[in-house]
Specification:
It is a single chain. Helices cover 39% and strands 20% of the residues. The chain is an alpha+beta fold. The strands form 2 sheets. A 3-stranded antiparallel β-sheet has the order 3-4-5, covered by helices on one side. A two-stranded antiparallel sheet has the order 1-2. It contains 4 helices and 5 strands; from the N terminus they run ββααααβββ.
């Protein structure tokens, strides 16, 4: 066995039999390191995707409320259908599926009683995406699958000249 002296330290060269015995150690170390690295990578990707979807939905329902208070009814048979079309357009394709589209809701609320109301002036309009289901990329333990994403926006209905647009479904 040869020895190399560097200052205060001495470094011994490993023998050939020792090198042969430690041949699989690098593979085990690699496997033990890559599992947490992949876990953290997928966790960061999933968390950023949930935040992105939540921000996208919040912007979409905010635009839906802004459209609702004007009393416009250009894309659907009823004003609520037109509002949902605006939200679906602004949701970047996340609400295109039939189950995802079922999570969009438009409510009109009487500000005095809190009861269900119509789209007349002074009532509150609430546009929401409720319980949109997002499935993470990686299967994390102890995490409720799928994750539910919610977004809501409110505003007060303004004066609409002429007659009020019709409502397809009062929720």
């Amino acid at each position: 066995m040869s020895e190399l002296v560097l200052g205060y330290w001495s470094v011994k060269k490993a023998s050939a039999s020792r090198k042969a015995r430690s041949g699989g150690a690098e593979l085990i170390e690699f496997a033990l390191l890559m599992v947490p690295i992949f876990l953290m990578t997928f966790m960061i990707l999933d968390l950023s995707m949930v935040i992105f979807i939540r921000c996208t939905f919040q912007n979409a329902v905010r635009d839906g409320v802004r459209y609702a208070i004007t009393g416009a009814n250009s894309t659907g048979p009823g004003q609520d259908d037109s509002i949902k079309a605006v939200v679906k357009t602004d949701a970047l394709g996340f609400l295109n599926g039939t189950t995802a589209a079922a999570t969009m809701h438009v409510h009109w609320i009487d500000p005095v009683t809190g009861a269900v109301a119509n789209n007349s002036m002074g009532n509150i309009v609430e546009v929401s995406v409720e319980a949109y289901k997002y499935s993470p990329l990686a299967p994390y333990l102890r995490l409720g699958y799928p994750l539910n994403v919610w977004a809501r926006a409110y505003d007060v209905m303004q004066y609409v000249p002429g007659t009020l647009p019709s409502i397809t479904k009062v929720e």
